[in-house]
Design a protein that fits this description.
There is one protein chain. The chain is α/β, with parallel strands linked by helices. It has two domains: 101 residues, no CATH class; 151 residues, NAD(P)-binding Rossmann-like Domain (Rossmann fold, 3-Layer(aba) Sandwich), CATH 3.40.50. It is 34% helix and 23% strand. It is built from eight helices and eleven strands. The chain has a six-stranded parallel β-sheet, with helices on both faces. Helix 5 links the parallel strand 9 and strand 10. Helix 4 packs across helix 8. The longest helix is centred in the last third of the chain and has 18 residues. It is elongated. The mean pLDDT is 89.
């Protein structure tokens, strides 16, 4: 689900759509990556560098010449463009006009990098939403408090009020990664327990992350043992969250470390 910001000029002027059709060896972007070029605007990217620079110029030459038939072009990155990737990229070039605009979002949508279930609408939760706003990450965002969510959200973020909040664990998409960071330790514990119960029954949550310190997790482990969870089951929980060696407790820093951890697993 790659985000698609349609160039404003495309609603009244033509554009060239450049799509990565095939890659041999190493290339700057994956198959399906795209950019749309109008006479004065640009959306998307096929990887930057000399390849993109040349394709922007070529697209504008094609626009100036008039409508053309869709065709493929081959670019050897090392010999012809001096890029160290060294592979070969095959690009598809197509003419677009305003009549094509409505179907482009669906056509160009890529599968999401991940599904995320985020429990908690506080400072770190909001920082995570801001961070993934321009990433192909599909988010279910839960909180037990009324009117906690911002009024404007990205299209790929679904916000839901749930009270009790742990009831929302049943709504989490299969194979979603879970981050737990509610305003209350009691709520966090109930969400963790609900996730472990679901994991016991369905084994479909590949990552369950809990914000907090090692001392918080030590306290939670004892309480979860009382609730009947064993060491193997509690091994599904990651606490603290975030990749190591990123220091700082600002919400934005914690969000960056947590999202990076999700993307590398």
């Amino acid at each position: 689900m790659e985000l698609f910001d349609l160039p404003g000029q495309l609603r009244s002027a033509p554009a060239v759509l450049v799509t990565v059709a095939r890659v041999e060896g190493s290339g700057p972007r994956e198959v399906g990556a795209w950019m749309a070029v109008t006479a004065g605007e640009l959306a998307g990217s096929i990887g930057g560098g000399q390849l993109e620079h040349e394709l922007i110029a070529e697209s504008r030459r094609l626009l100036a010449a008039g409508r053309f038939a869709a065709h493929d072009r081959r670019y050897a990155l090392g010999p012809s463009l001096g890029q160290c990737c060294g592979g070969v990229v095959h690009l598809r070039l197509e003419w677009l006009d305003a009549s094509d605009a409505d179907g482009l979002r669906e056509r160009l949508a890529a599968p999401p990098l991940l599904d995320l279930a985020l429990f908690g609408g506080g400072h770190v939760g909001r920082a995570i939403i801001e961070l993934v706003a321009r990433l192909p990450v599909r988010v279910q965002w839960f909180d037990s408090r009324d009117e906690i969510f911002p009024t404007a959200l990205p299209a790929h973020v679904q916000a839901e009020h749930s009270d009790p909040i742990q009831a929302a664990v049943a709504e989490v998409r299969p194979s979603a990664k879970v981050l737990i960071m509610s305003f209350s330790h009691a709520e966090d514990l109930d969400i963790v327990a609900a996730c472990l119960t679901r994991q016991r029954e369905r084994s479909d949550l590949p990552f369950i992350g809990l914000i907090g310190s090692q001392s918080k997790w030590a306290s939670f482990r004892h309480r979860l043992e009382v609730r009947g969870f064993d060491e193997v089951e509690m091994g599904h929980i990651t606490c603290p969250i975030g990749i190591p060696r990123i220091h700082g407790k600002q919400p934005e820093v914690i969000a960056l470390a947590a999202v990076a951890q999700l993307l590398q697993k």
